[in-house]
C-alpha cells in the first residue's frame, strides 16, 4: 500500500463495514455515496485525499443535501425530504464540530487582521485566509456574509 490512508477515510471505511454487519441498508447506501465521491476525486487527481480534502467533499455533499431538502419541502414531498434529512445526518457525523458564533466571529476578526483587509475590496484575501480554518465547520455562504458585513462596517 503506497501511502498511509487519512484517519477520516479509515473512519468512513470502518463505518461502511459496521453498516454491512448491521445490515443497515440506508446507512450503507449513504456511506457508499461518500466513499464513491472520495474515490472519484482520488482517481481524477491521481492522489490520496487528505482529511482536509475529504472534509471539502463532505461539505459539498452536505450543501447538496440541504439544497435538495429545501426543494423537497417547498414541493411538499415529505417522503423525499425524510431521506435527505437521514443522509444529511450521516454525512455530518464525519464533519468536524461546527464553530460557535463567538468562535466564528473571532476567526473572522483574526483573518481580517492577518490579511490586512480594510475594505470590501479585500474580501477575497480575507476569505482565502479564513476558508482553510472554517471549512466544514461553518456554512461558507453565511461566513461570506459576515465577512462582508465586518468589512463594510
Mean pLDDT score: 88
**Uncertain segments:** none
Q: Helicity range of the residues?
A: over 70%
User: How many structurally independent domains?
Assistant: 2
CATH level-1 class of the largest domain: Mainly Alpha
- Shape category: globular
Quote the CATH topology of the largest domain. Answer: Hypothetical Protein Yqey, Chain: A, domain1
User: Which structural class should the secondary elements be placed in?
Assistant: mainly alpha
End-to-end separation in angstroms reads 53 Å
Radius of gyration: 18 Å
Query: What is the CATH architecture assignment of the largest domain?
Result: Orthogonal Bundle
Helix-strand string: HHHHHHH
User: In what range is the share of β-strand residues?
Assistant: under 5%
Q: Report the CATH superfamily of the largest domain.
A: Uncharacterised protein YqeY/AIM41, N-terminal domain
Number of helices: 7
Number of strands: 0
Question: Which sheet architecture does the biggest sheet show?
Answer: none
3D architecture notes:
By secondary structure, the protein is mainly alpha-helical. It folds into two domains: 7-92, Hypothetical Protein Yqey, Chain: A, domain1, CATH 1.10.1510.10; 101-152, Arc Repressor Mutant, subunit A, CATH 1.10.10. It has seven helices and no strands. It has helices at 7-22, 25-45, 51-74, 78-92, 101-115, 123-134, 140-152. The radius of gyration is 18 Å and the shape is globular. The N and C termini lie far apart (53 Å). The model has no long low-confidence stretch (mean pLDDT 88).
Amino acid at each position: 500500500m503506497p501511502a498511509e490512508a487519512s484517519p477520516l477515510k479509515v473512519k468512513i471505511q470502518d463505518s461502511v463495514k459496521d453498516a454491512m454487519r448491521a445490515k443497515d441498508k440506508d446507512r450503507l447506501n449513504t456511506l457508499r455515496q461518500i466513499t464513491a465521491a472520495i474515490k472519484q476525486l482520488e482517481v481524477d487527481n491521481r492522489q490520496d485525499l487528505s482529511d482536509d480534502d475529504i472534509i471539502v467533499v463532505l461539505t459539498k455533499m452536505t450543501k447538496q443535501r440541504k439544497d435538495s431538502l429545501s426543494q423537497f419541502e417547498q414541493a411538499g414531498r415529505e417522503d423525499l425530504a425524510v431521506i435527505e434529512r437521514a443522509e444529511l445526518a450521516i454525512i455530518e457525523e464525519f464533519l468536524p464540530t461546527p464553530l460557535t458564533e463567538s468562535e466564528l466571529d473571532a476567526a473572522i476578526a483574526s483573518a481580517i487582521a492577518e490579511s490586512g483587509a480594510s475594505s470590501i475590496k479585500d474580501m477575497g484575501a480575507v476569505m482565502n485566509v479564513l476558508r482553510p480554518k472554517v471549512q466544514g465547520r461553518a456554512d461558507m455562504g453565511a461566513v461570506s456574509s459576515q465577512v462582508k458585513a465586518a468589512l463594510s462596517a
